[in-house]
């Protein structure tokens, strides 16, 4: 039986694409509480409960700290962070804006798409990339205005997004449940969402999922 932080290994600091930096067991892996979304502010790692209103907090070494709720925010599938607030959706068109320090719901706004996977884009057209399973990834701002969108194959089953803009380029990554059930898809954003590659996370993970 796994306890908080059990089974963790040494953190591997690397900038190489798809190198495994760490893997930590979910505290509620065997309890049926269904941790889903994940995000960090650099101080803590947060996970969400897709079938409830819990948000769980871990330290950066994977040790479970505590859990809390943010008002009416519930059933969050994924998380995004803009440097101040966290955002998430419940596979519907409402985006919840949350302050995890005060553990409060700051507000909500409407998205032009149902929000399951979500990521924050902090350059260019600033806003949020989101989709629901295999719908078109769509960039929108807090007014709900669509800024960009691109088509995908239609069988990706995305549950989480991450945005990258660094010396390796600008891209959107999606964590899909197709194939092995844990695939990473990369899309080039400067070219308007051109598909780049797929990586199977199951080839490097060792902990049970």
What features would you describe in this structure?
With 209 residues, the protein is an all-beta fold. The protein has no helices and 16 strands. The chain has strands spanning 35-40, 45-49, 55-58, 64-68, 80-81, 86-89, 92-99, 104-115, 117-121, 127-131, 138-140, 146-149, 158-166, 169-176, 183-188, 194-200. The strands form 4 sheets. A 4-stranded antiparallel beta sheet has the order 1-2-3-4, with no helix packed on it. A hairpin with a 5-residue loop joins strand 9 and strand 10. The chain is globular and about 40 Å long. The chain starts with 34 loop residues before the first strand and ends in a 9-residue tail after the last strand.
Provide the descriptors you would attach to this structure in a database record.
mainly beta; 209 residues; single chain; four-stranded antiparallel β-sheet
